[in-house]
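Hallway conversation turned thread

IA: we were arguing at lunch whether anyone had actually written out Sorting nexin-4 end to end. Turns out nobody had. So, for the record, here is the sequence (434 residues) and right after it the structure tokens. Reply here if something looks off.
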Amino acid sequence: MEQAPPGPERPLQPAPMEPLGRPTARLEAVVGEEAEGSRGEGRGDGTVTENNFSLKKIEISVSEAEKRTGRNAMNMQETYTAYLIETRSVEHVDGQSVLTDSLWRRYSEFELLRNYLLVYYPHIVVPPLPEKRAEFVWHKLSADNMDPDFVERRRIGLENFLLRVASHPILCRDKIFYLFLTQEGNWKETVSETGFQLKADSRLKALNATFRVKNPDKRFTELKHYSDELQSVISHLLRVRARVADRLYGVYKVHGNYGRVFSEWSAIEKEMGDGLQSAGHHMDVYASSIDDILEDEEHYADQLKEYLFYAEALRAVCRKHELMQYDLEMAAQDLASKKQQCEELATGTVRTFSLKGMTTKLFGQETPEQRDARIKVLEEQISEGEQQLKSKNLEGREFVKNAWADIERFKEQKNHDLKEALISYAVMQISMCK
């Protein structure tokens, strides 16, 4: 029989965090394949409906990006990029052709979806979005978020985000995620109606919990340290890679000068002319080959960036646990205080200095009726406090159980992805050297 998960006040020892792995370039576009329970089969024409969404295999793609001009909330004109999301069921129904649903979304709408998921699924390591503005760039790359190459890489990253959510056994069943893929109009209003903004924890409250929690769970403390290390290591790796790319690009391109010199030299040599012309051609080919090499490298760099941003997703889970632990400790402290007050009233002895004890000495004792009335009120508050404490304990245990199940899932994904990408990168480097 499976043992009950530990309470926040008595955590189990964590499993050791494993070394870095690397992410896959693609996930299978399967939405809700692992969802359980029966729902209606939908329209039966192969289109994706809310009823059959969790039971069918769905292909999701962000197929293109388009530069647009419009007006923002301040009624000011702005230029932005919209992305075309296409979804279609891979299952054919009675030989009918499968219809494709498509709609356009802005990056800010992807952000809104992820913020909603963070609030409603605090125990889940929510997949990160690709960078909004280019980081760790080298001189050939543009930091402009409207640059076509950057927009294309971000398009791939947004598609990967949707595939990550769609392949998650819990997130894939969310109705708001389904509407994000299928309902173009009024989707933002639907998200706002969930009231998720009111449920979001303030940064000040989270910071307060971080410093004031007395009995932090050792596992979440180690996880937070691990996420900091993960972010530091990947940031350093990406900075080094950008410097190396700059130097490598310069070394290759300087051979273009040799190509031009050999070509000019061949014009004044009779016997060596053909050989010099051939050498110049090979120098030009060598100089231009670096463009494709570094383009492939940028793909692996984007995969590393995904796990750079995953580090913040891990910290979000840790912050939520700290908030729950802090609320639990405050509830326990308040209950203990009320029990002490009740005991002091019942026995007539004051253990600690208090304003009430001082006024009693100055103005005399309360009447028995007044004392009994206060004791009755305190007993009711103690009963409510005990129920509240029990509820917070159960909530904390459930959070720990669900969070660590998802963290284990994340660790497996991370090790598989990083391992595969680093092997592919090594193979690419070997090919380049050959």
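OS: looked through it. DSSP finds ten helices and three strands in the chain.
IA: good, adding that to the notes. The radius of gyration is 30 Å.
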